[in-house]
Amino acid sequence: MPERHTHIAEHGRVRQVTLQTGNRQFYRQVLKNSIRHAQVSFRKGNGSEDISGDCNVYDSVEARQIDGKDVTVKSNDGVIYTAIWTDGSYSYAISARTGMTEEQLSGWVQVLA
After folding, report:
1. pLDDT (tens digit, 9 = 90+) per residue, 49-82?
2. What pLDDT, on a 0 to 100 scale, did the predictor assign at position 35?
3. Cα 44 vs. chain centroid, distance in angstroms?
């Protein structure tokens, strides 16, 4: 079994977790509105698979072009809860507990990838 390393750092309302297993690395950053409740979670990992960790069933799962990237958007009643995309080397995922608009998602995609 490959060796596994985990690093957790907290900076105010942001918790950053880095997990390394063999040659695979996973990075997660969470913006919290309180100690217990995460509002927005961002993940980045090696590869091109879905790394969102979101197993919920949504009314709509569709591909959209956002800032020149092919983004899979998962939503209910027009509110986006999870979005995933890849650049070929890394997978990205962002989840918002209370949902987000496409405009808000666009801002995250611009900043994060």
Report:
1. 898 889 999 999 999 999 899 999 999 999 999 9
2. 45
3. 7
Coil, strand or helix at 3: coil
**Concatenated DSSP letters of 17-54:** EEEEETTEEEEEEEEESSSS-EEEEEEEEESSS-----
Q: What are phi and psi of 102, to 5 degrees?
A: -65, -35
Mean pLDDT, rounded, of the chain: 78
Q: What is the pTM assigned to this prediction?
A: 0.72
Q: How far apart are CA 52 and CA 82, in angstroms?
A: 7
CA distance 5 to 62: 35
Tell me the pLDDT tens digit for each residue of 22-42: 666 655 655 555 545 547 788
Residue 16 identity: Q
Contact (Cβ atoms closer than 8 angstroms) between residue 28 and residue 41? yes
Residue type, 49: E
Q: Is 109 helix (H, G, I), strand (E, B) or coil?
A: helix
